[in-house]
Structure formats: structure tokens, C-alpha cells
Amino acid sequence: MFAPSLPAENDPLPLPAQDHALLSTLSTRRSSKVAHLSAPGPDRATLNAILQLAVRVPDHGKMAPWRFVVIGGEARMELGKVTAAIARAAKPDADGSLEEIEQARFTRAPIVLAVVSAPRENPKVPVWEQELSAGALCHSIGLAARGYGFACTWLTEWVAYDRAFAAALGLSEQERLAGLLYLGTPTEAPTERPRPDAAALTTWL
Hints:
This protein is of the alpha+beta class. It is built from six helices and five strands. The chain has helices spanning 20-27, 44-54, 75-90, 97-103, 127-147, 163-168; strands at residues 37-38, 66-72, 111-117, 151-155, 176-186. Strands 1, 2, 3, 4 and 5 form a five-stranded antiparallel β-sheet that branches.
């Protein structure tokens, strides 16, 4: 497995230079549909490498206001049983397909990575900035996963906003899910979708 060498603290870093490969990657960045993800997913070593690259996001105050929960193997089905029970309690009159859908929720990809936003009170770093850092982290994970040949789908869905599910995942009252990142091997190439016109959204002062 290729792993780029990482600089040590206080090492001088290279100055920005034109990088056509990077620009090309950004120009075709596209989430895969979760239905188009299959095994294999990243193994532990590769996922660790992906995360080590991804944590190089803006992080005011060097607080690392986020953490990860990896959901793989049989844990995907076990957690699906939890979501099925929560969903059934909320919708007792739903038909029997509810349990089937929820139990399979986390089996849509070989690895599901929960990115937990874990902000802390700091007089110099607003919680909002810490939450933005967690969002940047989710995006960086997708880019790093692509570098290793995997596809990434960043979802939230109802479970990301359900406190019973958060508790089952081990989140504290102060934590919330920035996203559930489904990681796997793409079975189909995504197609381009309409993109906003950046110039139309820009004001020059």
C-alpha cells in the first residue's frame, strides 16, 4: 500500500505550485450513489492512511474537534437492528418493510465511517468554526479515499439527527454526526450533474 511520507512537526512545507493532477481530480469530484458501492472496502491500514491524510484540514486552535467510529463487518447488521427498533418505536403503524430497510441500512457499503463533530468550549474558537472543520474533514476523507481507488458517499439521513441513535453509537450530548461516509469499490462510474455557476454567486468588492 502506498503511503506518502508525512512531515514532522516544524518541518518546512513546500510552497504552492501548479498541480495539474490535483486540479483534474477536483474538476471531476463526484459522489457515487450508495447503491453503486460494493466490496472490497478499505482495510484497516488503508483506512488509517486515508484518515491520516484527511485530518490535515483547517482546525483553528489545533483542537481536533472530531473523532471517528468505524462500522464494518457484523457491526453493520447489529447497528441496523438498533435503527430498526428506533424507527419502529417512532412509526408503530409502519408495515413490515420498515425493519428490513433499517436492518440493511449499514450494509449498503463494506465500511461505514461515522464522523463525529465533537466541539468544545473555547474562548477563541467558536463552536461554529469547529463544526465547519468537521465538514471539511468529511470532504477530505472523500478525496483521500478516491486517491486509494475507493468511492465515498457522504450521507446523513434521519439517523444523523436522532439522539437515540447517537446514544447507541456512543455520542455524548455535546456531540453530533457530521456525516456517515459509506466507503467501497464503485460498481458504476458516476455521471456529471448540473453545477452552480461560481461567478454568479460571487461578489467582488
